[in-house]
Fold this sequence. Notes:
With 213 residues, this protein is of the alpha/beta class. 34% of the residues lie in helices and 19% in strands. The protein has helices at 2-18, 86-99, 120-130, 144-154, 192-211, and strands at residues 54-56, 62-64, 72-78, 106-112, 137-140, 158-160, 168-170, 173-177, 183-188. α2 (86-99) links the parallel β3 (72-78) and β4 (106-112).
Amino acid sequence: MVLLVLSVIIISIIYSILKPKEVLPVFQPAQVNAELVDSTLHYKKKYHTIAPFSLKNQNGEIVTEADYEDKIYVADFFFTTCQTICPVMTDHMVEIQQELKDDAEILLLSHTVQPEVDTIAQLKKYALEKGVIDSKWNLVTGKKEHIYNLARKSYLAAKDAPYSPYELIHTENFVLVDKKKRIRGFYDGTKDEEIERLLKEIKILKAENEATF
């Protein structure tokens, strides 16, 4: 009996050592649906990162990539008057915020695709209605061209609206970004099971970061 117990323990230890750790992929523009990627990046197969940005949040504060330094974050694109997928996406962002509100390592970032409508005052009103925690989640606006380039050239998460300069058709995608500003996952922000997957993969990403120290 003792030998049997010892054998089970030894086998369990060996299995835990040999079992490969889960690691999330690093997404490159060439791997993503071409409709969501600016044509200048269709060829790019490595070294893609989120470009520097400067936007204003719901409190009128300037938000840049420096505010997300050494953070894992979830990004999306929306607009406050959207009546289709946005309400569901925002509700799921609220769920993520609640789940991770005590984890200072994780932040959220939502970009409006209608900056001409979503003023700072409008974003603040929306943030209050949705229970946004300012220290956790920035709703940002800025110049249309800048947001367009971020969506198409950095986050790879929006379709080009033809015949209108810098107009976007945003998608339901939530984008997971690591501490090195690389894209590590895409998730359908309208589906409960995708939010569960996102939360699970955030844990995997955190474990990956811890293993590097």
